[in-house]
Amino acid sequence: MFVPTTEKERQEMLRKIGVGSFDELVGSIPEKARNPAYRLPKALTEMELARHMEALGAQNRLPLSFLGGGAQEHYIPAAVWAVALRGEFATAYTPYQAEASQGTLQLIYEFQSMVCRLLEMEVANASHYDGASALAEAVNVALLDFDGRNPGRRGAVKKVIFPETLHPHYRATLKTYFHQRADVRLECLPCPDGTLAPSVLAGYVDDSTAAVAASCPNFFGLLEPAGELCRAAHARGALFIACVDPVGMGILEPPGSYGADLAVAEGIGLGIPPSFGGPSLGLVAAKRSLLRKMPGRFCGLTADRDGRRGYVLTLQAREQHIRREKSSSNVCTNQALCATAATIHMALLGPEGLREAAELCYGLSHELASALADIPGFRLKFGGASFYNEFVLQCPQDASQAQKFLLKDDILAGYPLGADYPWLKDCLLVCATETKTRADLRRLAEAARKLPVAAAR
């Protein structure tokens, strides 16, 4: 609601600011910038505007996409958004007093419970913005835990180690979060073979290491030896943070089973489609011992004075709206609508449906990799390394040019890796999920055979 000011109130504000008039207040702004002339076209009627938008939309192309790179396309049952967009969900930002919205709180509680089961972790929060910020917050938990376990070293430099096979956006987000902290040093380890060897990690982890973060599958789609990396981190007292693919948990080893202290994931694929910049969803889960250092909100189950089941926001004393600068994180919200979609999606699929989706991803991606590797000029960059549903394909020419060539056949063949990894400028990151058919795989392989090999390395 907008409450306008009176002339008396405006004059009082101007006196408080120390100027005599509004023109004096904005005097430093150039005249041409105060009321710029916008060259807008003539207004359209609703019907004319609809036709204009349809004409613009007709220019869109819908190529067959094999893009992945952290935003993979998965099938979303129609029931997910039919339910999620109901009025009681689509507008249900948790209000104050939160306990008035028992339906919203129950849904958040179910979301947390499902995430814990999916990742085999003990606690999960009410969701986060995306996978990258979820990882940054998990690292912050590890730093807080390190200071708590080493009070005599508080303020000393703490290391956070991760391989270059971690998603480039995740690495950039870590730098954004921590580059101004003099007590934090980020170390990115090279992985020329596509994965991080535990023996290499052991040479970098020492008593000043607060956390080791690694993804399985990693950005190249390869399966890191996560259990061994976790043990190498624990051997020197560091926490291990696992970044995982939530759909892949249908067949891959969950982080809780190999002792990860924290687990994070990008929620795109759990009822949320890839889109141009968002929205997204971050999953954050941890061991119970880290509960009070976790970011964001928690919903708990209790009973009212009549013994009836009730849901509440709990452990709020650690949040920024109460502890201010002493809080564990400045996050005080969640992705409620996206978490709703993810909860509905997981409930619809169940364990068996998730396993079937993951098996399809694995099988189709391996069929595609074999078909492309058989084409002269192409090969799998990392040979026989195990992968889940993405792989790095070395092309007979610069990968960006190969992508443009294949786009002529209305195929988005993958993600060129050269911008993030200069040593892989001739490589595409190719993804195949359960949304692809064998006919789609054949179409890509046939188009790839037309790629000029004359431009080969």
SS summary, helix count: 15
**CATH level-1 class of the largest domain:** Alpha Beta
CATH superfamily of the largest domain: Type I PLP-dependent aspartate aminotransferase-like (Major domain)
Shape: globular
Radius of gyration using CA atoms only = 26 Å
Distance between the termini: 64 Å
In spatial order, strands of the major sheet run 2-8-7-6-5-3-4
Q: What fold name stands as the CATH topology of the largest domain?
A: Aspartate Aminotransferase, domain 2
The tally of strands reads 15
Strand content: 5-15%
The chain-level structural class is alpha/beta
Q: Major β-sheet, in short?
A: 7 strands, mixed
- The helix content, as a percent range, equals 25-40%
Number of domains: 2
What is the average of the pLDDT values?
A: 91
Provide the succession of SSEs.
HHHHEHHHEHEHEHEHEEEEEHHEEHEEEH
Question: Unreliable stretches, pLDDT < 50, 5 or more residues?
Answer: none
Annotated CATH architecture of the largest domain: 3-Layer(aba) Sandwich
Structural commentary:
This protein has 15 helices and 15 strands. It has helices at residues 7-17, 22-25, 31-34, 46-57, 78-84, 87-90, 102-119, 131-149, 168-178, 198-202, 226-234, 320-323, 336-373, 399-407, 438-448; strands at 64-65, 123-124, 158-163, 184-189, 209-216, 239-244, 262-266, 282-286, 298-303, 309-314, 379-380, 390-394, 411-412, 415-416, 427-431. α11 links the parallel β5 (209-216) and β6 (239-244). The longest helix has 38 residues, at 336-373. The termini are far apart. The model has no long low-confidence stretch (mean pLDDT 91).
